[in-house]
Specification:
The protein is an alpha/beta fold. It has one domain: Rossmann fold, CATH 3.40.50. The protein is built from five helices and five strands; from the N terminus they run E-H-E-H-E-H-E-H-E-H. Helix content is 38%, strand content 17%. A five-stranded parallel beta sheet has the order 2-1-3-4-5, with helices on both faces. The chain is globular. Strand 1, helix 1 and strand 2 form a beta-alpha-beta unit.
Length: 143
């Protein structure tokens, strides 16, 4: 039983430890390509083009993993703001942030804000899948 008094039922997962992914990317073609990639891998997947859409889909579906573009430009929320909200509202969702910035201070900000990992763009499919497999499990407990 968890802190809210409900019982956590384990979800079926793939060999990478997740069964469902929400992709948040403000480029429609990238969103479509990534969601199709994950569906072909046997995952349930949704795509969002803005932070606001992402939060609505998170509330509706509660995926295992959020693949979040840190520099989303669509909508009023930045990727960092979405990350912080996700950590407050959905503590068990693992978050892999993608970023085009090579700034180490920015990467540390993402990790300190609750990202479970980050991946610098551009990256290939193999690196993306590897980064997902390498994410640690999330307990929903902050230290």
């Amino acid at each position: 039983m968890n802190a809210t008094g409900t019982i956590d039922v384990p979800r079926p997962t793939t060999s990478w430890g997740v069964a469902s992914i929400l992709v948040v990317e403000d480029e429609a073609l990238a969103t479509e390509a990534l969601t199709e990639l994950f569906r072909v891998q046997g995952l349930t997947c949704w795509g969002a083009l803005s932070g606001e859409d992402a939060l609505a889909l998170l509330a509706q579906h509660q995926p295992d993993l959020l693949l979040l573009d840190a520099e989303i430009l669509a909508g009023a929320l930045t990727g960092l703001e979405v990350l912080r909200i996700v950590r407050q509202r959905f503590p068990r969702v693992r978050v892999l942030v993608t970023t085009a910035l090579l700034d180490v201070a920015w990467h540390l900000t993402l990790l300190r804000s609750g990202a479970d990992g980050y991946l610098v763009k551009p990256h290939g499919v193999a690196r993306l899948l590897s980064a997902i497999r390498e994410l640690p499990p999330r307990t929903g407990i902050s230290i």
